[in-house]
Structure formats: structure tokens, C-alpha cells
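Follow-up to my earlier ticket, as requested here are the two runs.
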Amino acid sequence: MKSTRDKILNTLLTQRQATIKQLSEVVGINGISVRHHLINLQAEGLVTAEEQRHGVGRPAFVYRLTEKGMEKFPTNYLKLTNYLLAELEESLSPEELEATFKRIGKKQAEESTNIDKNQPIETQLEQLANQLASDRFMLSWKKEGDSIILQSDNCPYLHVGKEHPEICKIDETLFSEALGREVQLETCMLRGDPRCTYKINL
């Protein structure tokens, strides 16, 4: 049996938008309870509200799923990604494939990061972690001798990378381009390591 929360999300998926009154009628609970659930869903970033005015009187709020909310529902992204990667591997040489992933990493660095390279490396790494947090990177770092070890506790490619480990070149290039330094992948979750680590020579 679906929870009230799931019923609200499903209604917003199928109807694309709805007011509290409409959700109350579909879900079968009072408006106060619907509002409570919507407040929680908004706090989680799954639902957004837009004020709509129709003549005089109090404005009505219309609720919609956010992109994050849409991702709660099944998609074929994983299967499609595997198909695309398999096609690339068949069509390109290993050198061409690596060059392709490097270009993707470079483009991601240009679009997602803006590091002040005049700052100390620790400040740059803090900027990197903050700027990539929205892309679901969980970064930390520690100093080891003349190097810094950048750690990622999650793998954004875990479900596709096991069949296509060369995809790790994207993040290696992303970090290198963002920091303007040579970055080398040391350990990798796709190889069974507990986390991905990257060595940055100072």
C-alpha cells in the first residue's frame, strides 16, 4: 500500500501540477495534512510551489515536482547509459575513447567549477568540494608528505563503471582542470577499494 507521501508524489507526476485542494480530493485526506506533507517534500527539494492569482482574493499555490522529485520515479537512464558506452567502445579506439572522456571532464570543469587558483591549495579544495556538492560529489582531502590525497566517498558511476571502468577518466580530468594541477587516480571503488582517491603533487 502506498503511503500518503507517495500518493502525493504520484499525483503530481501524473497531473504535472495540483493545488492543495486538488491533492486533498485525490489522496483522500484533509488540506491541513496535505500542506504538512508538502512542507516536508519542499524541504527535501522534491516539490516546488508557484503562486497563481485569478482576479481578486487570496492567491492559490500550485505544486509541481522538481527535477529531483522526478528522479524518484523509475527511468531507463542506466540501461541507456550502458548502451551508449558499449557503442562508444565498439566505435572508438582506446585512445579515442580516453580522449572523449577527457573532453567531457574538461567541459564539466568549465561548467561546474570556478576555482580561485591564487588561493592556497586547501582553500581551492574547499571551493571544489562546495561547488561540486550539487553534483553529488562527497569530497575530502588530507596531506601526505609532498602530496595531497583527494578522497571521494561516493562513485557517481558505480552502476555503469563496473562494465566501463575507463569512465573514471572523466573525474580525474575534471579535478585536474578545475585545480590546474596534475591529478592521478590512485584507488577506485570500481576496483573494490573502499573509496576513490586521487593524488595531487604539490
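Run two:
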Amino acid sequence: MTSRPPEGRWLRPQTAVRANVTLLDKPKDAQRHVSLRDQAYAAIKRLIITTGLRPGEILSEPALSTQLDIGRTPIRQAIDRLLNDGLVEVMPRKGTIVKPVSLDEILNIIDARIVNETFCVRVAAERASTEVPAQLRRNLEAMREAAQARDIETIADLDQEFHAIIAGSARNPVMSDLLRNLHERSARMWFISLSTNEQHLRICAEHAAIVEGIARQDPDEAERAMRAHIESFRANITRQG
């Protein structure tokens, strides 16, 4: 187990990967059935995860309203929801800011992921239909293309999809919900880790090993590959911290 840093240590990325996330990036038809509050929530959350809004940055309702072309009331409602998610916090005499990333919290999440995802991938290898490896290989091919283009946002999206496919193939809705929550809570640090040290290329190789274990219906191989994948994430962010 990798040694932990001193308690209370915060991660602040040296280089932020700015994401030009606006609702104009999506087709209008895709927005019509989503409330303005939910649109604002999704857009601001994505800005936080992709470090378009950096840890410690003050959230300006007027600026976000202009950027996202949404009224200030839905923006305020979205920020309240992000407070509940723990992605932003209120600072006295300063306002609402993007909550800094705690390395201690991320390492705790990684410990929880190892316990739950190694179990999940074992079950997936035992139960997975022939369609699951095919889905994972399509995902992997798209990720390789994104890695070659250094499209970090797409890689992050595909990574979440990859793990969701595995969780779904285990046919345990409770486990799927738990793993989705763990991934969302560590998404910012995951995105930052993809931006350094060619980590995005290593992830493709790690995912390929997981796919092979599932395709061979070999729970031990699949578990080893998943554990190595998550430990690689731990090692990468610990170096950055």
C-alpha cells in the first residue's frame, strides 16, 4: 500500500486543462427535455471536473449566467446542488468557491474502489455475455483514438463508460450505484491525472488487460488487471501530490 501524505493535504493542479464547456456545445434538440436547472448543474459540474473552474476559484453567478446563456435563478439552484455534492463550498466574506481537492479523500476513495471494483470485475468475468467484451473493445478503440489526439475530456468520458459497462454486466444495481458515486467523487483528480506523464496512454493498455480477463472469463486475471489499473491511478496522483 502506498504511504499516505500528511493529513489535510490539498491537491492543486499545476496546470489546469481549460474546458470551454457551454450549453451551446450540445444540439438544441438534446436540451429541450432537460430543465434549465439541470442543464446548469451538468455544465457547471463539468467545468469543475475538467478544471475549467479551478480549485479555490470563486463562482460568479453573473459570469456563469453569461457563459452558459442561462438565467441566474437556475445557476443559483445548480450551485446549491453542487454544495450538497461537496464540489463547492461557501467561504465567509469570500463567497462560494470550488472546493479544493483533498488527497486524503481521494486515497480513501481509491481504497474503496479497489475493494468494490475488484469484486465487481470478478463477477463480470464470471457472468459477462459475449456482448460485454465487444462493448468494452469498442470503447477501448475509441479511447485509443482519443489518446492519440490527446483529447482528455473524451478519454475521461470513455473511462467512466468503460467502468459503467463492467458494473452493469455484474447485474448488481446497488454495486453500480456505489461505483458511479465513487467515480464521480474522484472525477476531478482523474481528469488531472490524465493530463500528465502520458497517463492517458497507459490507461489504454490497462483497460485492454481488463478486457482480456473478462473475455477469457478468467476472474483472477480480470481482478489482477483491475487492481493494477487502480493502483496506477494511486501512484500517479501521489507523485503529483
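The only thing I checked on run two: The domain at 10-99 is CATH 1.10.10.10 (Arc Repressor Mutant, subunit A). Let me know what else you need.
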